[in-house]
């Protein structure tokens, strides 16, 4: 029988429940009578009711009991504000909050961190006291990036984790199924309500061969992104298997799973490997290492498990890739990068190279990157581009500092920023490039949408392995191929990099560095949470009004969006992050990045009542003031990107009734439902073209809203003529109760008070 092992050194009284996985799987196996994939085992192993749960991949909604909830500081504010308003004294499952998103990278770790503590004091105090009050672990500013801390402390093979950040799947590197969710989902689970997930399909990625030379785990996911594209993983879990898996480190698998978010996958998972065992031992969890090894038969796919799609990659033949610009699935092999950059007229000078982040901060990453930097440094070379390092955690920082790796980067001309997201989330005060200047940057981060890193739409962002990024910093140009080309040293000699080498784990063990963790106090009754009514950053929530029981009748279209519309377009990050806990203030960023189909411009729409063009949020506020609701019409994969529920909350707050698109990204669609909005899709995507911005839309059939039954969208043209089109929805019974209550939270609060 599985042994009793604490889930984390920080929570010695909460145990891993392998027994439940085993019991559930016994029931599910009898019912399904077929081999199971790994992700099926983990998910079904966490079913709330394995006996009665309907299980059909891509169809059913699973009711699940996650082991853990993790929140980063930007999303935690709204999640905790929501949790507070549900009136529950204590989180129902182990949960933690991580301060990583609000630290602006400018001069370097020490001064940037000191300033962030000052600037964000009221938010950090709110989070620290709320965590203490409601029994959550609190990782303060400087502790590191959520996903790195989760893999170092909390993830374990077979775990089911939800996190209010889209790169939560990073924990797949330790064999966990970790899913990025909106704050509202986190609130459900913290409130003890089962978490609902549409039963994912399974995409298998078979790895053969062995990683070698310049190729790193990053290149696996860059290749997968190129094959499957940003939409390819939608509604699916990506499962890796095959003999090649054994040559990948746990942290390398973390990188692969992390960036699975870029193809829209629900999450990505790896089977139990000896590299996971090594990582668990090295991070102070030998008991978990042994328990999971003993449970390994349930931590891999059954022989003959069926996938909905299979991709095969031979690691022995895989070569480094550089993906971008502007989208992570535009894949170019490093060998062709120079020619492609010239052909496509990408800016050839590289202005900045950035390594680290939650995606690529492991000891292995840092030591391999440092091996290249050291070699170049020894030859007398310095970086030509700005070179920036964001360590993923205090533990990684302290360990790589102790082992001299950070010093190598500094000597080569690099700048070490705080253990935080920094430039990855647009928290980057750049002084070298003006807004509008075309320039190229290469990062080992995960996401490279327009304006993501520095808010400059003319910055061409590329993503590559930390090794390639580091070497490119010395080359300084897209014309440099570090594998084949030479650089010239100050003494005029040719210099060529040898392939990187590093260590999977630190030989001397990890150094935990400074203690930045705050455990909840034993007596939580006297902890007071304060939110000032005058605060510009935090605002207690007012519930949204329940559904009025009527159809939506002839409302204006706030904006008909053309083309890509990610959550960054809907609820921009960067400077707006500071208003994450203040719904009214943050709503001033609503949809300001989306392109209006009428004029091809961002943040300029015609007010259908006054006829004047104005900013999108201002126009919405005008409709709201007049008591007029409105809808958004959108294109394909609407809401791809992050899990931020503000992208849904602002639309609701400013009076939106529905978002009608060709297709949705999963998390955003669910978030819209949670806020009491109607996410609808054109049954015939071509109907998108039949709608003009000046039309009025009615949504008919709401009084008989039923799972699987389409609704009618009546389009009334300015002439008064109208036509009907069919729109689909994915509401299930439970989600319909959210719509009727006005939001999922209204529904929770109501059930709680009964
Ligand atoms: Fe932070 Fe970027 Fe990761 S924003 S959580 S470092 S994706």
Overview of the structural elements:
With 754 residues, the protein is α/β, with parallel strands linked by helices. The chain has 3 domains: 6-314, Aconitase, domain 3; 336-484, Aconitase, domain 3 (2-Layer Sandwich); 552-753, Alpha-Beta Barrel (Aconitase, domain 4). 29% of the residues lie in helices and 19% in strands. The strands form 9 sheets. A 7-stranded mixed beta barrel has the order 24-27-28-29-32-31-30. The chain has a 6-stranded mixed β-sheet with strand order 8-7-4-5-6-23, with helices on both faces. Strands 18-17-16-19-20 form a 5-stranded parallel β-sheet. Strand 16 (350-356), helix 13 (363-378) and strand 17 form a beta-alpha-beta unit. Helix 8 packs parallel to helix 9 (250-258), helix 13 packs across helix 15 and helix 13 runs parallel beside helix 16. The protein is globular. The mean pLDDT is 96. Residues 100, 145-147, 165, 167, 357-358, 421, 424-425, 445-446 line the site of FE3-S4 cluster. FE3-S4 cluster is lined by residues 100, 145-147, 165, 167, 357-358, 421, 424-425, 445-446.
